Amino acid sequence: MAISLNVSFFLNGNEIRTTVTPEMSLLALLKRLGINSVKQACMEGECGACTVIVNGDAMNSCLIMAASIEGKSVKTLEGIGSLENMHPLQVAFMETGATQCGFCTPGFIMSAVALLDKNPNPTIDEIRFGLAGNLCRCTGYVRPLKAVELAAAAMQEGDNAAEAVRKAVKTMHDEEFRR
To answer: Rounded to whole angstroms, how far apart are CA atoms 62 and 28?
Structure first.
């Protein structure tokens, strides 16, 4: 008979009560709960595709045992915005073309959310460090770094940060076109 453990935690602000097995990863639990943004890739904590925020810190969900999240708060991409009300980082990644194939994008955005929650005005070096755990084969990192930089600046402006990101990206593209 398989051992089951009861676990209770908050997922994107909603209390979840479920059972897990001792060997189940948080990634596997999130997939079981229908969370599609976390990606299963390396399963070794090397790529960042499964990054989530646990109690304010960006973490690789493939390395966290599901039983260890008892009483904690877990945030995924599904918990930061929606198609109707996108987070400024989601807008910035989309508008700057930082998404490319999109596989690593949720992990990048979650790492960036954790960074900006702790440091709302990071330098480019701090952004590089904040995203260092995320690998991408498509973008060359230039556009993800720019997306975080633009979103951070726009979020400083207040309420309509998503629109401020769109305006900043349009200005950036206009300047690139003039060169």
So the answer is: 8
Mind listing the pLDDT tens digit for each residue in 144-157? 999 999 999 888 87
Which of 134, 151, 149 has the alpha carbon at shortest distance from 58?
134
Residue 54: give its domain's CATH number: 3.10.20.30
Query: What is the phi-psi region of residue 150: left when phi exceeds 0, alpha when psi lies from -120 to 50, beta otherwise?
Result: alpha
Domain range for 171 is 88-178
Structure tokens at 18: 């479920």
CA–CA separation, 53 and 73 (whole Å): 8
- The beta strands (E) that lie in 2-122 are given as 5-11, 14-20, 51-54, 57-60, 73-75
pTM (two decimals):
0.89
Domain co-membership, 58 together with 99: no
